[in-house]
Amino acid sequence: MRAMTRTNKKGDDAYLDRLFSYFQSKFQEKIKQFVPIRKKVFYVKTKKNIYIIKGYRSNRRLKLQETFTTTLKNEGFSKTYLYVQPVKEPLYFEGTHYGVIEYIEPHKTNFSYNSKENIIEGLKLLEEFHKVTAAFEIRYRTLISKGDLVGKFQERSSIFINNLPVLEYLISQSYLTEMLEWAKWSLDGISANHTFFEKEPFVILHGDVAHHNFLRDASGALNLIDFDLIQVGPDVLDYLQYANRILPYLEWSFERLYEFEPFQKFLKEKAFLYALAYPSDIFREWNRLIRENSHIKPSKTKYVLELTINQFHLRRKFFNELKKMVK
Question: What is the domain class of 13-102 according to CATH?
């Protein structure tokens, strides 16, 4: 992270200057560094401390995050952050509510799914998170939504299909046709076996187990961060997403996926096999690019094109194996 005084001049400079002045007036200590990390997320260094400031659309969302992370800590899950109050009053600026998060000094090496050891370590941390949240998830059932895999995948497919007039200029029609066939087969199977993804006991689902939400701190310990997408539901929904995240690193190999203990019981279930076939990552990334109008920028589309095409033959083989297994 490259720190500069005030701002690194990305985005709307005038807005960032106003925001910096506002934060400066509200913090109890003078701000020495103010660095945008991504949209509505900032690195702030004062004379004595470092913080992350994060913006939310509503005060309710902010308070939910503050409450949830406090509950996590109180219930025994220590491997995350807390929200703190080094300010004179709540932060609200031009329609956005801001929370202040304690800073976790990162390790020199970022966490990724490129090694078996890291995948296992991430799974163990996720399992610990689920065990802790299972004890108090019932208190959050009125505060957060229930996981809905069918609804989520149906919506993602619908948006992808609506984006086809744009996608046809970027991706070969044969690829698009085949991916849509995978998605339909998957959704039909999930819908027919949907009760598997609705069974109690419930936990609180993290909802976004991307590698960047596992943060290795300076001491080497792994932490879980960013709980914006938490829901209530069976742990299999997080494990399904985790499998989808690591399969590209495993070259879409059943044998290598089966080596990880948490997946062994799930790979015997038809519902889980159907769900693995859904091209969730490809649909998600293209839908996001088009929503943000970034598909017109080659620098933005390069990664998603590689995600779509580079392992396509491996994904096809994986899909064909799935079809045999569910029979």
Answer: alpha beta
